[in-house]
Amino acid sequence: MTKTSPQEHISGHERPTCSCSISHQSLALVVASLNSAQILLKTAQAALQCVSEIPPHVIVATNLGSGASMQAASAGPEHAMAQRCESAISLSDSGSDCPATSTWPPTPLSLPADERWYTVTVGRNPGVFCSSAEVTDNVCGIPGGNPARYHTEAEARAAFDAALAARLVCQVTITTTLP
Fold it and tell me: Distance between CA atoms of 177 and 96, rounded to whole angstroms?
């Protein structure tokens, strides 16, 4: 079959052929993948902007049992109102298998020798944790939510306190909506 001009095709003579090495279906898949990647990049960018806009005072975690609210306190005697670093992000796909909230884990009295402590400074519920499963639920799907691992609770608490002093602790809420 020969290639024809658009005018010949419109007049009904001969249908043009495609000499592309990539099929139209493959091209459609690539475009869909790029669109998904663009959505994920926008999500990450919005969450990172939220983290970088932390108010110029220390954020202290309070009421970690149920509401997981964050309360900001200045270095001086004055205290600011509750501050939350929220990122309400609308995603087109509902592929998140992570729970929306996490609760403060109970601390066991004695730990096995191979047990580790984790510090979460950016997550749904920042703090010091003993369970890797709860840490995963806490940071899953949150850009910048990389927990640090420690051998002892004292090391983990010292690292978390240092992050508080450096104003690096932020609670992030990601809201997923269906299209």
Answer: 11
- The string of pLDDT tens digits covering residues 36-59 is 777 777 776 766 665 554 443 333
- Contacts with 135 (C-beta within 8 Å, 6 or more apart), sequence order: 118, 120, 129, 147
- For 40, other C-beta atoms within 10 Å of its C-beta total 13
Give me the sheet containing 122-123, strands edge to edge: 85-87, 170-174, 122-123
The string over 105-132, giving b where at least 16 C-beta atoms fall within 10 Å of a residue's C-beta and e elsewhere, is: beeeeeeeeeebbbbbbbbbbbbbbbbe
159-170 pLDDT, tens per residue? Answer: 999 998 998 888
Q: How far apart are CA 176 and CA 98, in angstroms?
A: 11
Q: Are 14 and 5 in contact (CB under 8 A)?
A: no
